[in-house]
Amino acid sequence: MKFLLVFDFDHTIIDENSDTWIVKCAPEKKLPNGLRNSYQPGHWTEYMGRVFVYLGDNGVKEDEMKRTMTTIPFTAGMIDLLGFIGENKELFDCIIVSDSNTVFIDWILKAADCHKVFDEVFTNPAAFSSTGYLTVQHFHAHHCAKCPKNLCKTKALKEFLDKQLERGVNYTQIVYIGDGGNDLCPVMFLKKSDIAMPRQGYTLEKKISQLAQSLSPVQCSVLVWSSAIDIMSYLKLLIKE
Asked: Which InterPro entries would you find in this protein's record (predicted)?
């Protein structure tokens, strides 16, 4: 008996969007209008690339970015939940699939000392260049029309599951915890025995209920959460069964 927990990162593990939080490092804590308005739907990674260039041009260094990013609050109850998962790692494999980037996620999890809970993190690769600028790349290429250009979370999840199967690991249930529109694709991939846990009041919950209203509901069970304590209560029940 092993369960797979799949977490989104922004507005799920942390209570903010890491990509917009970094703007606190910009002069006057805001971006020029031209840059702000340059975002095109489906091309967030390219937009963030321009934001990082702007920060670099304005002399924002790695240590200042790191200091700022590690002040992001975690979602209510999340540290307790991650502690609980950590204590029960023999039952839970735990991964992150996120449209953030490796540098931000690494900084934030390590600062809170909860990085060891996660077996793998699937997100856009980022690194500092020799000139000290943060650069970000697409996670992968894919052909899914529903997802942004740089990341189809279903593809990332499927590849992980295939790799685990080759190692002889088959999960009793997948629990998918997220909040955003780009979490709908992987939720639609889940089977009847799996469970989606959308955050209350966020886009994913709204999209799942729209599907139910149009009589094409998702296959998996759905359990809404507002605090990570709700998620922990469910996992405790799962273990008891």
From this structure: HAD-like_sf, HAD_hydro_PyrdxlP_Pase-like, HAD_sf, Pase_PHOSPHO-typ
